[in-house]
Amino acid sequence: MVTRTLTAVLHKxxxxxxxxxxxxxxxxxxxTVEEAIANLKEATELYLEEFPLPxxxxxxxxxxxxxxxx
Length: 70
Prior knowledge:
- The longest helix has 18 residues, at 33-50.
- This protein has 1 helix and 3 strands; from the N terminus they run βββα.
- Strands 1-2-3 form a 3-stranded antiparallel β-sheet, covered by helices on one side.
- It is flat, with a radius of gyration of 14 Å.
- It is α+β, with helices and mostly antiparallel strands.
- The relative contact order is 0.17.
């Protein structure tokens, strides 16, 4: 099995953390950040058993700011 480094994007919805992997499209949740990531890892591993990803370069991940009334 090839080890890959994937991205986890998390956000909080009420009392749960939702984690998603943009490279694969898998989504999971948990009551803590750690649980959400562990559940996402499990879901992604199961997904990749059926639908392996082709070898690609790692995406560039960054952040940016926008102005507003937030």
